[in-house]
């Protein structure tokens, strides 16, 4: 796959919850190794976009294309598709009865049918990468929130996804633990991982993001590179939002 290939393309995506029109004609593309950051007020539809990209929510209309292939939930094996799209949530949802390494190797063994010794080798490598080599045999209850979230990141990476989705990965953390998770994400980005990140961490958005999408009431009303969005937003509503969060 060449450097400029398209990983995700979303066209005219619409989503309703009952009568509530939550996503309105969303168009977005994510190129290989790009970090796309979604910002916007609470309730604007950020999580719903990510959940549609991972097919945890069913879109009502529009198309989602993954690496050139249009994904139709009715006809495709969504578990296969989800292996290609890793997701990290605000709440880490680790298996409490499994060790850190146990959490990381579970899906590769059960879902991908990777040999256990191979999964263990890969898992140890990933835990090293997120700075948790010394926690391999520890249970999640013994970890800080920042460490749990780094395990969650390693667990998602263990499936070798083509793109990683992050939904406010630091919002549930104590302030002093936010930095270590953002640093892990930054490192991933520098290694070329394709990422879609929902965050209120504007420093991260500015420093690591390639494209910023500003979502307002279910619509992307402004998009641009960090310099454009943070230094000279065109839309009054973007300026208003940024004045509250910066
Ligand atoms: P954000 O992540 O930007 O805070 P969400 O995508 O979670 O926003 O939500 C967008 C809108 O959709 C909100 O009005 C929210 O209340 C509504 N919503 C989200 N999930 C559901 C659901 N499962 N059922 C009904 N309404 C929902
Ligand atoms: Mg959300």
UniProtKB/TrEMBL annotation:
Alphabetical list of PROSITE patterns matching this protein: ABC_TRANSPORTER_1, ABC_TRANSPORTER_2
InterPro entries cross-referenced by the UniProt entry: AAA+_ATPase, ABC_ATPase_HisP-typ, ABC_transporter-like_ATP-bd, ABC_transporter-like_CS, MetN_ABC_transporter-like, P-loop_NTPase
UniProt keyword terms in alphabetical order: ATP-binding, Nucleotide-binding, Transport
One Gene Ontology molecular-function label: ATP hydrolysis activity
Residue span(s) of domain ABC transporter: 8-242
Keyword Transmembrane: no
Top-level taxon: Bacteria
Residue ranges crossing the lipid bilayer per the database entry: none
PANTHER family documented for this protein: AMINO ACID IMPORT ATP-BINDING PROTEIN, ARGININE TRANSPORT ATP-BINDING PROTEIN ARTM
Record protein name field: Polar amino acid ABC transporter ATP-binding protein
Source species: Oceanobacillus zhaokaii
